[in-house]
Amino acid sequence: MSVFPIINLRPAVTEFLQSVFLNTEVLAAVGHQEAECRFQKLLSCLSHPPSYTCVRASTHLNSLKVVVNNCLCMPGYVVSPESKLSVPSHSLRAPDEADVEVCDLPFSCVLRPVKQLSSEVVVGAQCGSAVLRGAHVFAPGIIASPKYMKAGDVVSVFSDLEGKCTRGATSFQGKKAFVGNGVAQMDRSAIFCADEPAKGIGVRMVEPLYQSPSFDGVLPGLAFLQNLPSVVVGHVLGPRPGERILDMCAAPGGKTCHIAALMEDQGEVVALERIRNKIDRIRQNAQMLRLRSIKVYCFNSTQAVSSDPVQESEGPPFPPESFDRVLLDAPCSGLGQRPNMGSTWSLKEIRSYTPLQRKLFHAAVRLLKRGGVLVYSTCTVTLAENEELVAWALNTFPCLTLQPQEPHIGAEGMLGAGLSPEQLRLLQRFSPELSWDQTGTAAPLSCRANRDTIGFFIAKFLKN
Fold first, then answer.
1. Catalytic residue (one of 257, 332, 379, 399)
2. 76-85, 89-98, 345-354 — most confident range
3. pLDDT tens, position by position, 393-421
4. Residue 322's closest CA among 447, 417, 463?
5. Distance between CA atoms of 228 and 450, rounded to whole angstroms?
6. Which residues, 6+ apart, have CB-to-CB distance to 154 below 8 Å?
7. Which residues contact 353 (CB under 8 A, 6 or more apart)?
8. What is the pLDDT of residues 430-457, one digit of tens each?
9. What is the number of other CB atoms lying within 10 angstroms of the CB of residue 199?
10. What are the DSSP E strand ranges found in 363-433?
11. What's the pLDDT score for residue 216?
12. What is the rounded CA–CA span in Å between residue 146 and residue 157?
């Protein structure tokens, strides 16, 4: 068994992704060998976390200097001499106002030499991925543990790559990946034999494979943990004070709050989320960041356009052309998320998102005012959900035109959807595989941080 394998996908999904990255246009441009190399690098980098942790500073509450100084004073958070939490050169605003910080920790870009132990705890793939980004193991994520495990035992933690481990098992011989060592915080009986599901930390990680900072509960209101491409989205949308803006698929609210902060909390940000138990998370984030311009509704955004010419309530559905700007951070297959060591999704599930994305896009265009801006984004790497959707949108809605993005620090759009070179240059695709194993320590910090991100896609439209 490989200690740290490439992402584990169903064979049909792997073949599908390979066909995407080795499509006719790509092969004609770079050749089969280079295209295959990029695809293999994609599979490798997806199972590893990004080398840098991006933290969005709440500059609407405190100056950047205050946030940086507080971060530097956190006990146990060692920052490399090179970065000092300094602002990358691609600052998303003027240097004194930039709201993105890259925490460059030593060992963050290499696997640590951690010795596996004989006592093993098995966790779900999602839990294992969280551990690689600095989290401890919470009890609900534990699937199997030694028969006589007691609080205080030192254990090795493994991630179940195929979802085949039986809950409550005492051992597991299936496909798994080692993510580090920790100390059990609960007895086995408290995890599996209690009357109610166990809560809290089940294993406190002391030797994770990746030394990655955890910002869970750290500097609330000052530093908001967010992937760099997700921060870029807010700036690309370009919200201005006094505008009315719609975030169509808002949970957990990171982008919603960023939009409100960029507007200086002046105007209205309407956040829609169809899953009720996610609504509280958006409200909690808004409250923590002291943002009052955000209004949250539990509503299906595909039905957010009202056919009633007389709208009496302030909530959804809304009359057509109700918003100055719309963010559609669409539900997607999530194949750009990192780390992701294994997915049990079928090809049918992977392909199921495009029809939903198109329905949401229809609603977004109708809700947007003439002259307004629509930003579409996903955290996946497929053509169907990204460039092909853009091609469909431009063909379906003659009123839409692609717009330049600021900042533009990712790569251009991917070949294969029939878009022109000019159109591809207006798109922004964060493609970590293009620089995987090439972003050495000799490169500037900003260059390394820009490239080693999750896989992400952004398109910006103007409604004429």
1. 379
2. 345-354
3. 999 999 999 999 999 999 999 999 999 99
4. 463
5. 8
6. 117, 119, 181, 182, 183, 184, 206
7. 330, 331, 332, 333, 380, 385
8. 999 998 876 555 566 667 778 889 999 9
9. 11
10. 368-378, 400-402, 428-430
11. 65
12. 11
379 is annotated as an active-site residue: yes
Are 269 and 40 within 8 A, CB to CB?
no
Q: 355 with 302: CB under 8 angstroms?
A: no
Task: Give 280-312 pLDDT, tens digit per residue.
Answer: 999 999 999 999 999 999 999 999 999 876 666
Cα distances (Å, whole numbers) of residue 167 to 145, 163, 175, 222, 460: 9, 10, 15, 39, 45
Question: What whole-number distance in Å separates Cα of residue 31 and Cα of residue 26?
Answer: 7
DSSP 143: E
* Residue count of the chain: 464
Cα separation, 182 vs 202, in Å, equals: 10
**Domains within the chain, CATH numbers bracketed:** 120-208 (2.30.130.10), 227-463 (3.40.50.150)
Query: Are the CB atoms for 239 and 375 separated by under 8 Å?
Result: no
Q: Say if residue 175's pLDDT is above 50.
A: yes
What six digits make up the tokens of 68? 């940086």
Sign, CA dihedral 37-43-46-47, equals negative
CB 457 within 8 A of CB 429: yes
Encode 205-246 in three state secondary structure.
EEEECCCCCCCCCCCCCCEEECCHHHHHHHHHHCCCCCCEEE
How many CB atoms are located within 10 Å of the residue 331 CB?
18
